[in-house]
Amino acid sequence: MFRNSGARMPSIGAGSVDIRSIFGSILNVIKTRANQICAATCDGLILRMHYRWTFCLLLGGFLTVWYSWYHRDVITCVSHFNAETQVRLDYINICLSYPYIEDNGSKRYLLFYRWISWSLLVLAGVYYIPRKVSKNFDNARCKKLLEDLAANAHRYDQAERELVERAARYIIFNLKTHNGLYWKYLFVNVLALLVDLFAMQFLDFILQGRFIQYGFNSYPFDRDPQKFTDYMSQTFPPFASCELTLENQLVNKRTEKFGCHLTIMELYEKVFLILWLWLILLTFVTCCYIVFLFLMWLPCVRAYLLRTAKPVHANDKVRGVVHAVAKNCKIGDIYLLYRVKGHLSHARFYELMTRLSDPALFTKQIQQAPPGTIPDGKDKMPPNKQADTLRNRRPNMPQDPPMNPEYLHQLLASPEMMGRHPQSPDQRTPLLKKNTSILIE
Length: 441
Prior knowledge:
This protein is an alpha+beta fold.
């Protein structure tokens, strides 16, 4: 456990942790995820930078620090009274949690030294939240359409024409109903920005208010290896002091002072500098993308998103077709067409735009609806007559067949018939008498 008055964290099991196999498994998972086609309606590059790239960066930082804690000396302490005597393990355990440096006459405790690796693991889980939210916001039919387009994007045969036909039928039938996709996608990107801001504030709290300005104050990264007065060395000091007093309950009513070398601090300063640069870049790119999503309300931006190269066989101007489509579509339809554009060639996308540029597109879609889907008012029955119960049922009574007027006229003109039936046939008799007379005859 001791080696040159240093302390090493106990390894898992018998100390046979194969870090190469762990990294190999992680790399295989990353390659598998990277090769998957992104066809979700509420997903994009900015979100993948959060839940995939930043997640892997934080997880890699955690594993790197964790490996250093379990496979090398993390602290070396000596007593100020007797530097040749090995420091007890229980004293070193306290020094791992409460080292300090002198800062302007006061003590600044480095409370993050022992637990900072777990903060990276917590942030890795937080950065996966936008992915879970975006999966719940997905539109199944739109996702299936984008998956089919992405899976056959490399084909140039008849399949591409069929995909264009399928996309046109779906968009025309569901025109002006995709605004929810746009607002959900915007919400997930705003959520990703909030995660970035939370990560900055969380790490600034962990590092005692020295993370947000870490990169700015460290520039131009001039180091002071003698007195360690530069900002990086002050944030992650490699040498610190440790003091055990009566409150620690481990000394016999005396004060013990130790000088400690925090060996992992040299790794911390590099890991957090890379993390600071990435979070600054990620926050800036996310803000710019959210502004771009808001700019989609402008007609000029919509025309720019739908602009495509004009094929040789095209007759209409691209600008006129684009403006006609923008006039027929809402913001959600523009967003969906922008996603579809990435999976089609210029000629096929122009063909799709031509079909959507018809001014009477919505009217034709209503007229093409199959008859009988919407019942007329005269066909509707009141609810009290629709109930079919035994109480409301009536016995099947025989009904008189419809009488022919010519046949009735012949009967009236025949004297034999009038003599046999003196009563006028147009006078109605009760049902019982009529049936009785028939039986008698």
